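Let us work through a complete example step by step.
Step 1: write down the sequence.
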Amino acid sequence: MFGGLSFLLDALTAPYLPRVPGWGIGFIDPVSIIWVTSYLLFGLMVGVSTSIIGTVGLMFFDPFTPVGPIMKFLATIPIILALDLGMRLGFKPYSGGSLKPLRRYIPLSLVGVIARVVLMTFMNVLLFMTILSLSYATINLFGFQLVSWSAVITVAVLVNAEQSIWDCGISYLLAFSTKLYDQFRFW
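Step 2: predict the structure and record it as tokens.
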């Protein structure tokens, strides 16, 4: 069900998302919120499956296919894996309910955000070394003109950190504030 929801959201939003010109990285992309929410509600297998289905869905609609969807998957998986690994190593019982206390969710989310930012900074550098031209790597940030590698690294860090806040925050609210997890207790 969440895979289908992710596919539908891909179709409705991917062509219209605000993006860094010439680069393709979206300033905000709500599809990964569905992926993280799916993990919180249903567990690792469903969360990863939803992410894979969403990535396939993006292949049909994303203007930067196949690079954009693959990058989106690689950006979101560290958050899901950090939450899951943190629970397996430190919290009993192993269930989504173990993530409900913010004192657990926030630190594990931060580990995922850091992993995402590091991985995606590396992936964006690799992207510009192999596929994109550095001439696209120009951005005006608060009146400062950033070019070349400083633009690539700065944008990769800022956009991935910002998107992680949406992914983790809204997913938490959807799963736990709406009582969906408490009502159904899927895992």
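Step 3: interpret the result. The domain at 2-184 is CATH 1.10.1760.20 (Arp2/3 complex 21 kDa subunit ARPC3).
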